[in-house]
Design brief:
Elements (H helix, E strand, L loop, with lengths): L4 E6 L3 E10 L2 E11 L3 E3 L2 E4 L1 H18 L5 E5 L5 E5 L2 E3 L2 E2 L10 H7 L2 H8 L8 H11 L7 E4 H10 L4 E2 H5 L13 H6 L10 E2 L4 E4 L2 H7 L4 E3 L5 H7 L7 E4 L3 E7 L6 H5 L3 E4 L5 E7 L2 H10 L4 H8 L21 H11 L8 H27 L5 E5 L6 H11 L2 E5 L3 H12 L1
Parallel strand pairs: 1-6, 6-14, 11-12, 15-19, 19-20
Antiparallel strand pairs: 1-2, 2-3, 4-5, 5-9, 7-8, 7-10, 13-14, 15-16, 16-18, 17-18
Helix pairs in contact: 1-5, 9-16, 12-14, 14-15
Length: about 425
């Protein structure tokens, strides 16, 4: 009997249910359900609609069971850093989106208590305004932690809603900026100094851990029964686990994450100053990587200029424009208008304004490619190794023009694998366990 598993892979802009099984020592996949995702805005803040996400998870499982009644297991992966506060079995709503600006005002206070140099030495996690450590501290100051018993990262929460079982998974936990690189557990010296209640933090579990069967009411609604397991619940960790290459990787989606797998974390000053991160990988290893703004920039420019990503990529081929911006600048995190922000940065950097949509397209893709090349160069310097290739996975791997520019800027051979790498990594853990 064929062992079929389901990967529910939810990104910042869409989610999908992918069934997978092994044939000839390879994982074969079939997408059976897809749904849109994105934060909603209310009263000047950005939130996730976790109730809708949970309903979509159930809708997708219903579609899966209709075709494949005998599913061996299911697991869910999502982006990192975001979470749901819990009071016992009650969710504390609303659930903030990482692009919300609420943490801006508390970051200086956090760093006055635990300087960032010390945070980085303990956790190896790059500074980003939305790291969970800052979100939780803002919750504390706002009184949102009053009566809270614990919290779950988004994929853990969705699987809790399926099973009634709460378990925290290592790779997603590392995105919080609170996991010690030596112990690979929550650093309670940091949480204590920040006054974050200890009961919020528990044991970290590995991918493959069984949570349990679907709750009776979920099984009835979806029309089937299966086991829910933890995968590597941070989507990039799953994507990297799908690769066989041991060299640098680029997981290209809303965010572009460029890095290399390592047994030990790099917490030296050069890594900190370059804003490199040491996020969790399989068997408590590390992904030494740089978070680059990624296709978020492309998608916003396309929307503002009434282009598809394919049209933007094609236009870039028709231009020799040389203007470049630093896509990791804070202004690009959640601008009111991405195109205007790019034009502003070009002017500041002394470049002439793009004369056409072709020039703008070239600027966007060249800026991303330059960011990728710079990150590969830093990895080589930090590890003392030279690499001749870069493997790109995810939706951005389909962008041939961006891949070509990345080769030009980096001098590396680019191998593009436009596969559902995250889903395959998710399935791989389930099929192995």
């Amino acid at each position: 009997m064929i062992k079929r598993c389901v990967a529910v892979d939810i990104g910042a802009s869409s989610g999908r249910h992918i069934v997978g099984w092994e044939e000839n020592e390879e994982i074969v996949t079939e997408e059976l359900y897809r749904f849109p995702n994105g934060p909603y805005q209310k009263d000047g803040h950005l939130y996730w609609d976790t109730e809708r996400l949970f309903q979509e998870v159930k809708n997708g499982l219903k579609a899966v069971f209709q075709k494949y009644p005998d599913i061996a297991s299911v697991s869910i992966d999502t982006w990192g850093v975001d979470y749901v506060l819990m009071k016992g079995d009650e969710s504390v709503l609303p659930v903030y989106c990482y692009r919300d600006a609420r943490t801006d005002k508390v970051i200086p206070e956090v760093h006055s208590i635990v300087p960032f140099e010390e945070l980085y030495a303990h956790t190896g996690i790059q500074f980003q305004t939305f790291n969970t450590i800052y979100q939780l501290y803002e919750d504390k100051l706002a009184g949102r932690l009053d009566g809270v018993t614990d919290f779950l990262m988004i994929p853990e929460y969705l699987m809790y809603r399926l099973t009634g079982v709460k378990k925290k998974e290592y790779t997603n936990a590392t995105t919080m900026g609170l996991v010690n690189v030596d112990t690979r557990e929550i650093d309670l010296t940091i949480t204590d100094r920040l006054g974050l209640p200890r009961q919020l933090f528990g044991t970290l579990y590995e991918g493959g851990e069984i949570l349990g069967e679907l709750l009776p009411e979920v099984a009835e609604e979806t029309g089937g029964q299966t086991v829910v397991k933890l995968c590597l619940t941070h989507d990039t960790a799953s994507a990297v686990y799908a690769l066989t290459s041991t060299g640098p990787y680029l997981s290209s989606g809303t965010w572009s994450l460029l890095g290399i797998c390592q047994e030990k974390a790099h917490t030296d000053d050069a890594s900190r100053q370059a804003n490199f991160s040491n996020e969790g990988g399989i068997r408590r290893t590390f992904r030494y990587q740089k978070n680059i703004m990624g296709m978020w920039v492309v998608n916003n420019v396309c929307k503002e200029n009434h282009l598809t990503p394919a049209e933007l990529a094609s236009l870039s081929d028709e231009s020799s424009y040389e203007g470049i911006v630093d896509v990791n600048a804070p202004d690009f995190m959640a601008p009111e208008n991405m195109t205007k922000t790019i034009l502003k940065h070009l002017e500041i950097n002394g470049y002439p304004a793009p004369a056409s949509a072709k020039d703008l397209a070239r600027c966007v893709l060249s800026s991303l490619a330059k960011g990728y090349a710079d990150s590969v160069a830093h990895i080589e310097k930090s590890t003392g190794k030279t690499y001749d290739s870069l493997v790109i996975v995810g939706g951005g791997a389909k962008n041939k023009q961006l891949n070509s520019l990345t080769e030009q800027f980096s001098g590396k051979r680019v191998t593009a694998l436009p596969i559902e790498a995250t889903a395959i990594g998710n399935l791989k853990i389930q099929l192995e366990s």
